[in-house]
Amino acid sequence: MRHTGILFGRSMRHILRSPDTIITVTITPLVLMLLFVYVFGGAIRTGTDNYVQYLLPGILLIAIASGISYTAFRLFTDVQQGLFTRFHSMPIGRSAILWAHVLTSLVSNAVSVVILILVAVAMGFRSSVGVLPWLAVTGILALFTLALTWLAVIPGLTAKSIDGASAFAYPLIFLPFISSAFVPTDTMPTPVRVFAENQPVTSLVETLQSLLNDRPVGSDIWVALGWCVGIAVVAYLFAMRAYRRAT
Fold first, then answer.
1. What is the DSSP track for 118-174?
2. Which pTM was predicted?
3. Rg of the chain's alpha carbons, rounded to an integer?
4. How far is CA 192 from CA 179, 189, 222, in A?
5. Which residue in 208, 238, 232, 209 sits closest to 106, CA to CA?
6. % of the chain exceeding 90 in pLDDT
7. Which has the closest alpha carbon to 212: 112, 117, 108, 109?
8. d(C-alpha 227, C-alpha 207), whole Å
9. 113-116 long-range contacts, Cβ below 8 Å, gap at least 24?
10. CA–CA separation, 77 vs 104, rounded Å?
11. Count of beta carbons in the 10 Å neighbourhood of residue 89
12. What is the pLDDT of residue 27?
């Protein structure tokens, strides 16, 4: 744990010295939120008075999917510069190197999420729920970040180029567009609706929407948690396999 803490501090110093990382991660979801609320929002019927009430959960997931690409980038850079080999020559815990990058991803994405929520509040987002629903939202977003971060570790360790290390995140960023993140799925053509209703983003979005708007979450929360845990476990196993091969 001490070794992980030291290496985590190293990764966070890199971000603090290059704040454009968080700015880049935040600016695209922020622009999307402004565009959809103020340009398209008047034409979209979601049953809410202010479209940002419906849109915010999907925007948060897009921000996280965008942010984890930097985890792959940082890992790829460490591998290519020979830092992994250097660290392994030292008497430190082998798992500390990976967990430091994972913790950095959790913290940096949390900062982006907080910024987007504050902007959404300025745009009219309101939630009257208590502390427990907000804690549940925080936990789900953290679990989603953890799952995608371990997914990002795999290309970070195995990619042959910097573009290959970060490009895997593009499908994840666009996945919310084919879900209930922007419009209800019942407005979609049947083939698209079937896909949208059976992919992980829809269950996550509807769980977050229910928690933030004080509605019963039903079975959506268990489906969302199942997706997150399943992705995290599978990604972790493949990431550790790639890590052993790389070292």
1. HHHHHTT------HHHHHHHHHHHHHHHHHHHHHHHHHHHH-SSHHHHHHTHHHHHH
2. 0.88
3. 19
4. 9, 6, 23
5. 232
6. 26
7. 117
8. 12
9. 113/60, 113/63, 113/64, 113/141, 115/22, 115/26, 115/30, 116/26, 116/29, 116/30, 116/33, 116/56, 116/59, 116/60, 116/63
10. 15
11. 8
12. 84
Lowest mean pLDDT among 39-43, 142-146, 152-156, 216-220: 39-43
User: Rounded to an integer, what is the distance from CA 187 to the centroid of its chain?
Assistant: 26
> What local confidence, expressed as pLDDT, does residue 148 receive?
92
**d(C-alpha 75, C-alpha 14), whole Å:** 13
Percent of the chain with pLDDT over 70: 98
Residues 6+ apart with CB under 8 A from 136: 211, 221
The per-residue pLDDT for 19 is 67
| Beta strand extents in 151-237 (DSSP E only) | none
Whether residue 39 contacts residue 182, with contact meaning beta carbons closer than 8 Å, is answered with no
Query: Three-state SS for 64?
Result: helix
Residue with tokens 């990382």, as numbered in its chain: 21
- Residues with Cβ within 8 Å of 24's Cβ and at least 6 positions away in sequence, in order, are none
Name the residue with higher pLDDT: 59 or 91.
Answer: 59
Confidence class for position 32, pLDDT limits 50, 70, 90: confident
Taking the alpha carbons at both ends of the chain, their separation in whole angstroms is 21
User: Do residues 59 and 29 touch, judged by C-beta distance below 8 A?
Assistant: yes
